Amino acid sequence: MGKIDMGRVLLGGIVAGIVAAILSYFVDGMWLISRWNEAMVALGRSPANSSQILAFNVLNVISGIALVWLYAAIRPRYGAGPRTAVHAAVWFWFIGYLIPNLAFMWVMHLFPHHLTVYSTGAALFETILASLAGASLYKEA
User: Fold this and answer.
1) How far lies 81's CA from each of 4, 71, 72, in Å?
2) What residues does each domain of the chain span?
3) Contact at 8 Å (CB) between 67 and 88?
4) pTM to 2 decimal places
């Protein structure tokens, strides 16, 4: 079992984060924006501002790096390639999106249930595509 190439993790992770940010823009910034704005107003909050959107994009890159690291970590056991990238994406989504969204958005009723379902489902799609993009750049020495 070789060492993880952190340079490649960073490269693939940045790409994965950019892919996730672009997809998230289409989902949350275009398709669900009116629902998000309504939900925020219902909580007594204003819609997301530019500094919050920037923070989401930075978090996408950090998440992309973590996702590609996960891919690199399970690669010796599952083998290199898209199937392993999808495995990494599904586990990353399960831990990073499904559980927290069910806990805070669904159980705590912070946001409408349909918004939770749309957002969480779209996050699976985004995470898989981001993982495939980032993992395609990961190689070990």
Assistant:
1) 15, 9, 10
2) 6-136
3) yes
4) 0.93
